[in-house]
Amino acid sequence: MRMKRLKLKGQSSTAPMVLMTLLCLFLLPFVGWSQTDSKISTDVDTLSIKIGEQIKYTITVETDSTDVVHFPEGQTFSPLETVEAIIGDTIKNNNRVILQRIYALTQFDSGAYTIPPQRIAINEQPFFTDSFNIKVADVAVDTTKQKMYDIKPLMQVERSNAELWKTLLWVLLGLLIVGGLVYWFFLRKKPLTEEEIVALLPPYDRALLELKKLENSRYLIQDEYKKYYSELTDIVRLYLEDEIHVSAMESTTGQLMTKLEMLKDAGELKLDDETLQQFQNILQTADLVKFAKSRPATAEQDRKIVEQIVVKTHDALPEPTEEELLLNEEYLEELAKKKQRKRIYWAAAIFAGLVFLGAGASIAYYGFKQVRDTVFGYPTKDLLEGEWVSSSYGFPPVELETPDVLVRQEVKLPPEAEELVKELQSFSYGSYVGIFSVSASSAIYKEEKDPDFSAAVGATLATFEGLGLKNIITKQEEFTTKSGVKGLKTFGTGTVMGPSEDQSKKAKYTILSFGGKGFMQQVVITWEDGDDYAEQIVDRILNTLDVKTQA
Hints:
With 551 residues, the chain is α+β, with helices and mostly antiparallel strands. It has four domains: 39-137, Sandwich (Immunoglobulin-like), CATH 2.60.40.10; 194-316; 319-377, no CATH class; 379-547, Protein Transport Mog1p, Chain A (3-Layer(aba) Sandwich). Helix content is 40%, strand content 28%. It contains 14 helices and 21 strands. The chain has helices at residues 18-31, 162-187, 194-200, 203-215, 225-244, 253-265, 273-292, 299-316, 322-366, 368-376, 379-385, 415-418, 453-466, 532-544, and strands at residues 2-8, 38-44, 48-50, 54-64, 69-70, 81-93, 96-106, 111-115, 119-122, 125-128, 132-137, 389-393, 398-402, 407-409, 421-430, 436-445, 469-480, 486-496, 505-516, 519-528, 546-547. The strands form five sheets. A seven-stranded antiparallel sheet has the order 14-15-16-20-19-18-17, with helices on both faces. A five-stranded antiparallel sheet has the order 1-2-4-7-6, with no helix packed on it. The two termini are 28 Å apart. It comes from Flagellimonas olearia. Keywords: Membrane, Transmembrane, Transmembrane helix. The chain crosses the membrane at residues 168-187, 344-368. This is Protein BatD.
C-alpha cells in the first residue's frame, strides 16, 4: 500500500492593533478556540494491476466538524475509469470529523497511466492531492497450453426486417379498413327499400299495387282531385309504356287513343271498343280535373275501371315467346352488371379520393420530399432509420456508431510511407464519390514522434482530387470527442465533376484527426450537399465518436 499525506493550514488573521487583541481576549470565554487546520491524505491499494482489475483509491479528510467538504465526482480519474464511488466511514471526535471516500478504478488497455491530482474543496477553498503512476499489464497467455486461432472472417448478417414488417402491417390494416368501408357502403347487397321492391315488380303487378295504394290514399277525403287523377293516369300510362311499349307518358289523350286503336287494328292488342271508350272517358275526365278544376263524383269508380283496363290489357297481350323471355333476362343481367360497375366506379373514386386527400395532408404536414422519400425510399433515409452498429475499429481504437458496419480495407502504402508507418488499419463503408461514406483508420509509426496532421489531411484531400472532386474549400477547427479528447476537424465542400456540367454535384466532407506520440487516428465522412438525411447521420456519428489516445 502506498500512502501520501498532505497537511494544509488555514490562514489566521493577526491584528497588529492593541484594540483588536483586547477584543479577541474579551470574546475568548464565549467562542473558544477554532481549529482551522485540515488534513488530507490519499492512498491506493496497489500500483500495478492487470487489464480489467480494480484499484481502490482512498481519500481521507480530517477537518473541523463545521466545514463543508466536496469530494471529486464523475470521471475525474481519466485515463482510468471510475467504476463506483463508496462513502466510507465518518468519525467524529469533539469538534473534529474524519471523512473517507473510496473509489474503484480500472483500465482495459495495457500501458503506464497517471492518476491525475484530485480536487477537494473545503469551504469552497480548493486543495489538490498528489498523482499516482499506475501500470496496467496484459494477461499472460501460455501459448503452449492455449491454442491460437486465426481471426475469423466477417460474417454476413441478415438485416433485421422488423421495421419493414411493422410498416407493412400498418399499411395492410389501413387497406383492410378502407376495403371494409367500400364493401359496406358500395359492394354489399343492401336490403331493398319499398320503392326499389316496387320498381323491380313486373309492370302488371306494379300497376295493380300502385292502384291499391291510390285506393288507400287520402286525396279524395282532402278534396285533392287533381293529385288523385294525375297519379291515376300516370299509373295506367306507365303500365302501357312498359307492357305494350307505346309512348304514353308524353302523348295527349287523343294521340294515345289513336296509338291504341292502331295496335288493336294490327292485332297486337285485343281490346273491345267498350273498354277503349271507357279509358278515353277517364282520360278526358282527368284533363278536365287538371285544367278546369272540376270535382267529378265518379273518382272511385274511375279507379276501378282503370284497374279493369289494366287487367284486360294484360290478358289481351299475347304470351311472350322464348326469345323475348331470353332477351328480357339478358336485359336484366346487363342492368345488374351496370349497377355493379357503377358501384365499383364509385368505390374506386372514393378510394382514389382518400388516397389523394391523405397524400395532400401528408405533404402539407411533412413536406413533399419527406413523403416522396417515405413512399419510394431514399438511400440515406434508409441508412438513418435502419439498425445502427456501434463498434471499435483498429488500434489505438476508434469508437463510433454507424448505419452499417465498416469493412476492413487492405491498404497498399507507398515506399516513402512504409519507411515511417509500422502498421496501418483502415475500415470503411461506401465510396468517397458516392452519396455517403465513412471511414476510420489507425496508424502506428516506427518512431515515437507527434503525428503530422497537416500532411495526413493533405493526403486525404489529394485522394479526393484524384477521384474527381474539384473546387475544394477547406476550413479547420478544434473538435472534442464525448470523453473530452481533442483533435483537429477539417471540413468543407467540393464539386464532383460528371460527364456534363448538368450532372455535376456538390459534396461535403469532414476529416477528424487525433493522435499522440507514435500514432494517429483519422475519421473521414463524405456526403452530398443538401441531403438532410445525411446531415443527421453525420451529426449522430460525431456525437458518438470517441478515441483512445494510449498506443
